[in-house]
Amino acid sequence: NAGVTQTPKFQVLKTGQSMTLQCAQDMNHNSMYWYRQDPGMGLRLIYYSASEGTTDKGEVPNGYNVSRLNKREFSLRLESAAPSQTSVYFCASSEETGSEQYFGPGTRLTVT
Amino acid sequence: KQEVTQIPAALSVPEGENLVLNCSFTDSAIYNLQWFRQDPGKGLTSLLLIQSSQREQTSGRLNASLDKSSGRSTLYIAASQPGDSATYLCAAVGAYKYIFGTGTRLKVLA
User: Quick check: A42 and B43 CB within 8 A?
Assistant: First the structure.
């Protein structure tokens, strides 16, 4: 039981480049989430998916898109990376929205 | 709008001490309150989830309490150990939103 996995672990991008962060969970959870964590600002929700086939914006969605590929996988795409998107990105899942959340190990992204 | 505050931001204690970490939230209409631990460079590990109908939850040396009416939760760590050194975060859980505090960075000195 791997829990929540994320790839890649580290990434460096140049301004304007695009990339997709991958997330998968093997706990048969319905809900999945993407957060970013910045020093002094805590964790902020980017997008979430309450169930397969649905996605909704969180607190800071600008500059990001998501895809709930199936029940297991939830990807986050940066279409045109900006230095302000330098952060640590975490994926999480829960059985339902509002229930206990489980986090992946994170992706450290630097945009130069 | 829900806001979550954790005070103090940092804490150093000698090994063996019992300690309390505080979490305050502004909107009492929450589903749950969840406590996490985060080690440097790692993801968040769930410690305890207190449902809104509960007053406390226990796991080993950890005990978390919830007082919705006052907008407060505390995490009690008994007989602290150097391995407990980490950042502890709380999250106020609504229907779709998990609002996190910025954490208390704990250092337990051997």
Answer: no
